[in-house]
Amino acid sequence: MPIAPNTSRRAVVIGGGPAGLMAAEALAAAGVAVDVHDAMPSVGRKFLLAGKGGLNLTHSEDFAPFVARFGERAEVITPILRRLDGPALREWAQRLGVETFVGSSGRVFPVDMKAAPLLRAWLARLRSAGVRFHQRSRWQGWADEGALRFAGPEGESLVRADAVVLALGGASWPQLGSNGAWVEPLRARGLEIAPLRPANCGFDVGATAAHPHGPGWSAVFVERFAGLPVKPVALHVEGTGGRRFERQGEFVITATGIEGSLVYAASALLRDEIAERGQVNLHLDLLPDRDAAFVAAEVARPRGPRSLSTHLKSRLGIEGLKAGLLHEMLSKAEYADPAVLAARIKRLPLTLVAARPVAEAISTAGGVRFEALDEGLMLKSVPGLFCAGEMLDWEAPTGGYLLTASMASGRVAGEGAVAWLAQQG
Ligand SMILES: Cc1cc2nc3c(=O)[nH]c(=O)nc-3n(C[C@H](O)[C@H](O)[C@H](O)COP(=O)(O)OP(=O)(O)OC[C@H]3O[C@@H](n4cnc5c(N)ncnc54)[C@H](O)[C@@H]3O)c2cc1C
Q1: Are strands 148-152 and 138-142 parallel, antiparallel or unpaired?
Q2: Average pLDDT in the 226-246 region?
């Protein structure tokens, strides 16, 4: 977007996560003076945490399936992702000296699987472009006459700007700075905010056969298996209104239920079903690579003096956690009946009764509704105020989609602010 430098104009970006930094980059590139305020002592803390998992920056799949990951928001997010899609993000990282590679699952990571070198190089480039950072500066809302109110170590300060980009994140992992407290000041300005909900989150299980008065696993099961992965396994959920999920992968047993990649992938459906009906029933296929007839024949095979556990282990490789799950979920009578046992191995019912709190989730659903924003992500009712990142009302599974959409929307909001400032003359 060729726009003449406009140093007489000042923009404030609030939130120094990937969305805010990308907005600052777009503003500084157009010659606008930018001040980034962040509540924490340093910026990009969640970005750095993502680095602990290797920093899954984006995904290598084609644009159409990539966009489809955003479900109901696919249409509104399409023009945003066109401004910074997977290949463009990889190029952007390369220009910061960070090479990326495509992992076996199609996910894209920096070659060194770290976030810190990328963040360091990015901040250095932003500083040299004139971006100024104000840490420990928590935005509190607006003063009566419209100035931005910040709380810092020296007390409260008021700041005025010609354009403001809010990139305040969601409400997950509040210890890293994003706590969702922005909802109230925005609601007070008459904005409708979709309730913040956990996304890519774990769930609590209901009663089990071994813990019939539930909710939750039996103490013995937790002691032996919490923290261990169930794999390979397929998870199948039949939701209301034709929504369904069926996929193979792995998940982890927690003290109160389940979490991990396969559960995160199903989490929007699981969460919505629980919100609507109080609970959701799913089915696990503990042997997704074996068909039901094979499993039934192997379970029914004469086992002589061998115990049933030894039989399952030698004939089907079911032992450890998978054997523990069968003991946890089946009554003694079900376990002893070969036909029922075989059927349950292929279709083990599990009831989930609650999503874990948003503070524990990987990301947040809900937020500022797209209907309230123009194509430059400016609030239609508050000219000069832009929003970007996870605080917008979209959600996506893990796989690099969250960072890509956060950064793409940061760029769109930053460019939107540049265009708006130019229009103001
Ligand atoms: C454990 C974990 C691992 C993850 N791994 C990945 C991954 O590999 N790939 C991926 O795509 N996504 C991953 N994510 C998600 C991804 O990190 C987020 O979607 C992304 O950081 C959102 O960017 P954002 O800039 O919108 O918000 P944030 O990164 O949350 O940044 C918001 C910033 O705003 C600041 N802030 C908030 N409120 C205020 C206020 N009132 N005043 C001033 N400043 C404020 C915060 O301090 C913070 O610095 C992961 C998340 C978690 C929790």
Answers
A1: antiparallel
A2: 96
